[in-house]
Amino acid sequence: MSVVMGIALTLGACSNSTGPTNEPKDIEPKAIELAVRMHLVQSGQLDALNVGLSDAEVTELMTAVNRTWARASIIWSLESIVREDARNEPLFSRAPTDPTVDPVSVLTTEHLRPDIWNVFMIRDFGGGVGGVYLVIERVVVSAEIDPGGQRDTAGGMARVLAHELGPWACLTWRARPTATSRPLDAPWAHVRSSTPSR
Q1: DSSP-derived 3-state class of residue 8
Q2: CB 147 within 8 Å of CB 198
Q3: How far apart (Å, rounded) are the C-alpha atoms in residues 179 and 124?
Q4: Domain-embedded: residue 18
Q5: What is the pTM of this model?
Q6: Which range marks the domain in which residue 147 is found?
Q7: How far apart are CA 8 and CA 19, in angstroms?
């Protein structure tokens, strides 16, 4: 019993229980604001690339993304919305599984801003894929149709986009193909796909 009492007395002596500490408590971290340019891809040739989001829906989407990131004190602010035509549409169907096809080849980079985050929205990746982040710094490609096949700006669409923005906010995770995986088990892995299929 004397050993237990000795330990208790020692721990009590080491703790600062004589009064209040000078350390701040419950201080909210200052929010970090990160600008995002939203590129809405348009295509008259390929429905999978042709986005139908309105400006109001983009605002709803970013509001939902910010709800996800609120606990990290990060605010993704919408810098602008740009509608731009896709290019090389026939290559899109090959890009998810063919590492020789550069996914950027279907995106118009004329309005890319390298000093902020760029989100390219397409209609539908297909195959249960919701989005990818590219090796190009601060570029994400996300889909209007989520991996569950739904179109919900405040639901799956927002969850996927919030997830894809993670790597550029220093959260690194990526899906990698395994020896037994089918190509769409880790789609676009050669461009750092990070939304696993369901």
Answers
A1: helix
A2: yes
A3: 27
A4: no
A5: 0.71
A6: 30-191
A7: 19
